[in-house]
Write a structure and sequence with these properties.
CATH topology of the largest domain in chain B: Glutaredoxin
CATH architecture of the largest domain in chain A: 3-Layer(aba) Sandwich
Strand order of the largest sheet of chain A: 12-11-15-13-14
Shape of chain B: elongated
Helix content of chain B: 40-55%
Strand order of the largest sheet of chain B: 2-1-3-4
Number of domains of chain B: 2
Number of strands of chain A: 19
CATH class of the largest domain in chain A: Alpha Beta
Strand content of chain B: 5-15%
Strand content of chain A: 5-15%
CATH superfamily of the largest domain in chain A: NADH-ubiquinone oxidoreductase 51kDa subunit
Shape of chain A: globular
Radius of gyration of chain B: 18 Å
Oligomer: heterodimer
Largest interface: A-B, 57 and 44 residues
Helix content of chain A: 25-40%
CATH class of the largest domain in chain B: Alpha Beta
Number of strands of chain B: 4
Number of domains of chain A: 5
Largest sheet of chain B: 4 strands, mixed
Order of helices and strands of chain B: HHHHEHHEEEH
Chain lengths: 626, 155
């Protein structure tokens, strides 16, 4: 392997890589992301490899194992190019048909085509599928095309051209101005303008300066950053090197969750490759700029997503935040000027530099430019990762891309921003998704979790879920967060177990506002949001729990009961057999069965087992019982 | 059972020699855990002496981060993801099923040391929620039935 010593060396490599990339008549892009791995894609990949060899098709058919292509729900999946045919839910047994029928004879295989769940319509081309059609992919553009473990593939798609441009055509201030003009705002949740952050750090005189990539994606329900690192790690590295050049850093860190083993593997490999090619290290591309990156695996603490806590963790200590100011730009890692951005922010940088600020800010809204990647999950038909222009409405996201709610149920709300965010009710689904509008609605953009909830999701239970999370993850440093979140959780526990009392709602609101005002870091300052936003929009559900002792969504176990509908029950005895606590009584073939509430533990096994849908959940407590 | 502690010496030595300017508590603990599968008290005591940091400080780090375990795992380890997407798609029911089935609470180990299970924050496979990780292998769209079958298979 040779060190790239000049811009023209890089151009030669890119050209060579592009020719190599296009050398196959047909290219199979098989998704090897974590979601598809969970669906068993490795077996399909093994079968593909051995079959291609057996059939002597290796020369004309290229096989790319890509990172996450987004449509995790349908995995294992592949796209066959150049036609763009999309196959999903593939099993190893399908491989022979794919090679013999589709590739050799151009015949589609119907059973592997995507069927839209609501309309039953079939789609063969990737670009026609509503899930993909309604997105606008720029950061994710190459995820389905390149092999993340192969730096040549990244060269083939113009990789490191942005770095070349800044090193040889732009000075530091010009880079910062370009990023400022693009309007890029921090994708980790805060939405602080990235260019401004860089400028602050650039202006500091103290040396050395550090640059950190915050890859501690701790937000439950979100996995965008994971997929960028898994699918296109060099895009992140290129963004980091450009950032380091702009602020004048010579050392960088990637702080990554150890819970994401595949991402750790891919980013580690990418750093090694970049070093071998001289894209990291001394005199990058023959310029006088030097920079290197170290990878640090986080040990699992949500608070470490907070920048000052993250830096404490890199320093090897407990990840406890400290008050700001001073901001990291002034005094960060080992009290030196430090710039810290999120994975997705860095991934946008090479694209801004290559295509210009005007290209970037032509997408999105005035104050939120570009695209945002969301993990669209929960009670929605098409789950997966989506990249959409800022300003798209929630309605378009949930219904056009997400394909609506499964089982003909009604959407109730969308939760954004994870434990720091809030729930947006269905009647507000027309609001455009951007930093400011989400905040006005009592939520936040956050890092990009978008959890859809339906009529069977209890909003009090969701609020309790997040509080349980934040009080557990509270680092314990400041009392408002440490004690306050605990108190709020206790109240929510009481409410969901039927012990709610008058004044609880008002007390939760007051306590929540105090915690927001007085906590030290972002964790505490946002922890009450899920509670406050659900009270704001779903107060009636709280009231039903407190005053009627009833959980309208049928979730909170103390506020519901299971009931056998006499007319439906066929006395088949299955429910009685599966009940783990003998709470059901009846004789096979006899009278309809009965559930005893005082014995029933509300595990729901009987309902799952009943073939006649004769068992229902009834909100409230049965008359005549405690 | 007497614990073989020589590996601890090697790990501490390895990081001391790296000449890095950062305090190596986290990577040392990570490597100790990779070696033993958990953080035995004796290994912590040994490491704290060798590193010249107080046991309190080292324990402080060990208990702060979710990754570190102060108890050994069972032969088979089951992780139920309790992230938001998994929660709304029924993860709590899976945990209850496991608690009933194995007779232990989340975070515990069965008496015969055959099974341990715990809830995890988010394993980042939200699209196929609820997710259960059995011995390192991801299983999406889990149901109570599937989990019971998986346990029976391992028994």
């Amino acid at each position: 392997m040779t060190i790239i010593g000049s811009p023209s060396d890089l151009e030669d490599l890119q050209e060579k890589a592009e020719t190599e990339y296009q050398s196959h008549e047909t290219l199979i892009s098989m998704c090897g992301g974590t979601g598809c791995r969970g669906g068993g894609c490795q077996d399909v990949i093994d079968e593909l490899k051995s079959s291609l060899k057996e059939k002597d098709m290796e020369d004309e058919i290229g096989l790319k194992i890509t990172g996450c292509q987004g449509f995790c729900e349908m995995g294992p999946l592949m796209v066959i190019r150049p036609e763009g045919n999309f196959y999903c839910n593939i099993e190893p047994e399908d491989v022979d048909d794919i090679l013999e029928r589709t590739i050799k004879q151009g015949e589609p295989i119907e059973r592997l085509e995507y069927v839209e769940p609501e309309s039953g319509e079939k789609f063969i081309k990737e670009q026609d599928i509503p899930f993909y059609k309604n997105q606008g992919r720029i950061v994710f553009e190459n995820n389905g095309h390149i092999s993340p473990t192969n730096i040549e593939d990244y060269f083939a798609v113009d990789g490191y051209s942005g770095l070349k441009k800044v090193l040889f055509e732009m000075d530091q201030e010009e880079v910062i101005d370009e990023v400022k003009e693009s309007g890029l705002r921090g994708r980790g949740g805060g939405g602080f303008p990235t260019g401004k952050k860089w400028e602050l750090c650039y202006q500091q005189e103290s040396e050395p300066k550090y640059l950190i990539c915050n890859s501690d994606e701790g937000d439950p329900g979100a996995y965008m950053d994971r997929s960028i690192k898994e699918g296109n790690p060099h895009l992140v590295l290129e963004g980091m090197i450009i950032g380091a050049y702009a602020i004048g850093a010579e050392k960088g860190f990637i702080y990554i969750r150890a819970e994401y083993p595949l991402a750790v593997k891919h980013i580690t490999k990418a750093v090694d490759q970049a070093r071998e090619y001289g894209l990291l290290g001394e005199n990058i591309l023959g310029s006088d700029f030097s920079f290197d990156i170290e990878i640090m695996e986080g040990a699992g603490a949500f608070v470490c997503g907070e920048e000052t806590a993250l830096m404490a963790s890199i320093e090897g200590k407990r990840g406890m935040p400290r008050p700001r100011p001073p901001y990291p730009a002034e005094s960060g890692l080992w009290e030196q000027p430090t710039n810290i951005n999120n994975v997705e922010s860095y991934a946008n940088i090479p694209l801004i530099i290559r295509n210009g600020a005007d290209w970037f800010n032509s997408v999105g809204t005035d104050n939120s430019t570009g695209t945002k990647i969301f993990s669209l999950v929960g009670k929605v038909n098409n789950t997966g990762l989506i990249e959409v222009p800022m300003g798209i409405t929630l309605k378009e996201v949930v219904f056009d891309i997400g394909g609506g709610i499964p089982g003909g149920k009604e959407a109730k709300a969308v939760q954004t921003g994870g434990p720091s965010g809030g729930c947006i009710p269905r009647d507000m689904f027309d609001i455009p998704v951007d930093f400011d509008r989400l905040q006005e609605a009592g939520s936040i953009m956050g890092s990009g979790g978008l959890v859809v909830m339906d009529e069977n999701t209890c909003m009090v239970d969701v609020a309790k879920f997040f509080l349980d999370f934040t009080q557990d993850e509270s680092c314990g440093e400041c009392p408002p967060c440490r004690i306050g979140t605990r108190r709020m959780l206790e109240i929510l526990d009481r409410i969901t177990s039927g012990e709610g009392r008058e004044g609880d709602i008002e007390f939760l609101q007051e306590l929540g506002e105090r915690i927001i005002d007085t906590s030290l870091c972002g964790l505490g300052q946002t922890a009450p949001n899920p509670v406050l936003s659900t009270i704001r929009y779903f107060r009636d559900e709280y009231e039903a729990h407190i005053y009627d002792k009833s959980c309208p969504a049928g979730v909170c176990q103390d506020l519901i009961y299971y009931h056998i509908i006499d007319e439906e029950c066929q006395s088949c005895d299955r429910c009685r057999q599966i009940c783990p606590v003998d709470a059901i009584e009846g004789e096979p073939g006899g009278d309809p069965y009965v559930i005893y509430d005082d014995i029933c533990i509300r595990c729901g096994n009987c309902q799952d087992e009943c073939p006649f849908d004769a068992i229902e959940i009834v909100p409230g407590q049965r008359e005549g019982e405690e | 059972m007497e614990l073989e502690l020589d590996r601890v010496d090697e790990i501490v030595e390895e990081y001391a020699n790296k000449g890095n300017d950062k305090s190596p508590m986290i990577p040392v603990l990570q490597d100790i855990q990779t070696t033993y599968g958990w953080l035995p008290e004796d290994a912590l005591i040994r490491a704290s002496k060798l590193m010249g940091v107080s046991l309190a400080k080292l324990s402080g780090v060990a208990t702060f981060y979710n990754e570190f375990r102060l108890k050994p795992l069972g032969e088979n380890h089951i992780v139920v993801c309790t992230g938001t997407a998994c929660h709304v798609r029924g993860a709590p029911m899976l945990i209850e099923e496991l608690e009933r089935n194995l007779g232990i609470e989340a975070g515990g180990v069965t008496e015969d040391r055959k099974f341990s299970f715990e809830g995890a924050r988010c394993v980042g496979s939200c699209a196929v929620a609820p997710v259960v990780v059995i011995n390192g292998e991801f299983h999406g769209n889990m149901t109570k039935k599937k989990i019971t079958e998986a346990i029976e298979e391992l028994e």
